[in-house]
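Subject: Sanity check before I submit

Could someone independently write out the structure tokens for this chain? I want to compare against mine line by line before I put it in a report. The sequence has 273 residues.
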Amino acid sequence: MSSDANRRSPLGLRISAVAGLLFLHLPLALIILYAFTTEDRSFQFPPPGYTAKWFGVAWSERPDIWPPLYLSLKVACIATFLSLVFGTLAAAALSRAKFFGRETISLLFVLPIALPGIITGIALRSAYHTLHIPFSFWTIVIGHATFCIVIVYNNVAARLRRVSGSFEEASADLGAHTWQTFRHVTFPSMRTALVAGGLLAFALSFDEIIVTTFTLGAGDQTLPIWIYAQLSKPRQRPVTNVVAVFVVLTTAVPILLAHLLTRDKGGGIAGER
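---
Independent answer below. Compare away.
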């Protein structure tokens, strides 16, 4: 028997894998399918016909889509930037320093990603009320940063655990100061983990809805909130599906890039929500 035959998975295992993929991705395929349907009120399977007109409607006839889109992009970009700064600093401090209570602090850093989004949202809303912070664009950013920081922290910490600290010690022994050591030794070793963490943080922030609901200011609306509001309007479902397809692509592409960056680098993608 050939080596290829020996490595082949059992039939039952392959069927289970296909069934799992269909379970996960068939609903996404239906969203894409119904974005091209000619029916504008109810969904039929198979669709009575196919058209791309809803993409034109979403682009040119629905100006209410653009403000939520811009808001989601701004929130995701700023939350990602904050997560890269604070997540990287926290990972470097907890990975390279040894002190009493380090494991407890590490647990506290990853706790927000383990909590249900509704708990995080309620906690943030209560904190804003207690501190008399008005709900605005920045309250959304802070809410998203609470879990985006964890994404970056987990990726960078995982990478730093795989890189020996002896390289940094050797750099210091050769006369390099802290910034030179970071620039020439530490940063190159965790660069792909930073990019992957940033891409994941952006994707998760862009499609976040639960925490956003509790931290949204009056008159503000992100794209996921806009999609949720449109579900009660049957005639708008094809346009809603077009926007949903855009959200799927916007979140899937960064996640795919993050996977490609880390799959052969030993810096696993950690902390996905």
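---
OP: Matches mine. For the report I'm noting this point. The chain has one domain: 62-262.
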